C-alpha cells in the first residue's frame, strides 16, 4: 500500500518462488514500485507509475534473500517510501 510518504507491506516475509507483488495507491500522487534483491548485480523489477485510487501487479519468481522496495518518483524514497521484504527458502 502506498501513501504519501509511506510504503506498507501486507507481508514482510514470503517463501521463495512465484509471487504476485501488488501496488495499491491510496495516496494523492502517482507512485511506482521498484523491487531489488540485495545482492550485487541483481535486476530491478518495476511496477510503472500507478495513479491515485488504482492498483497494478507484477508476477515474479523471487529467490531467497532480502529485497528492498521503493517508490522512485521524485524524492519519495528519501521521504520514507521504502520497505524491506525477506524471502525465505520454501519449506520441504
How are the strands of the biggest sheet laid out side by side? 3-9-8-5-6
SS-derived structural category: mainly beta
Helix content: under 10%
Give the C-alpha Rg. Answer: 13 Å
Descriptive notes:
This protein is an all-beta fold and 92 residues long. Helix content is 0%, strand content 54%. The protein has no helices and nine strands. A five-stranded mixed beta sheet has the order 3-9-8-5-6, with no helix packed on it. A two-stranded antiparallel sheet has the order 1-2. A two-stranded antiparallel sheet has the order 4-7. Strand 1 and strand 2 (6-7) form a beta hairpin.
Keywords for this structure?
single chain, two-stranded antiparallel ribbon, 92 residues, 5-stranded mixed β-sheet, mainly beta, 0% helix
Chart the SSEs and their pairings.
Blueprint: E1 2-3, E2 6-7, E3 13-15, E4 17-24, E5 31-37, E6 44-50, E7 55-62, E8 65-70, E9 82-88
Parallel strand pairs: 3-9
Antiparallel strand pairs: 1-2, 4-7, 5-6, 5-8, 8-9
Concise account of the structure shown:
With 92 residues, the chain is an all-beta fold. The protein contains no helices and nine strands. The chain has a five-stranded mixed beta sheet, with no helix packed on it. A two-stranded antiparallel ribbon has the order 1-2.
Amino acid at each position: 500500500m502506498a501513501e504519501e510518504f509511506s510504503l506498507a507491506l501486507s507481508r514482510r516475509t514470503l517463501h521463495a518462488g512465484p509471487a504476485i507483488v501488488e501496488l495499491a495507491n491510496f495516496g494523492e500522487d502517482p507512485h511506482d514500485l521498484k523491487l531489488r534483491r540485495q545482492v550485487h548485480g541483481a535486476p530491478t523489477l518495476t511496477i510503472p507509475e500507478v495513479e491515485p485510487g488504482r492498483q497494478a501487479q507484477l508476477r515474479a519468481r523471487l529467490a531467497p534473500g532480502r529485497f528492498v522496495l521503493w517508490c522512485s518518483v521524485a524524492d519519495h524514497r528519501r521521504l520514507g517510501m521504502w520497505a524491506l521484504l525477506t524471502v525465505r527458502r520454501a519449506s520441504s
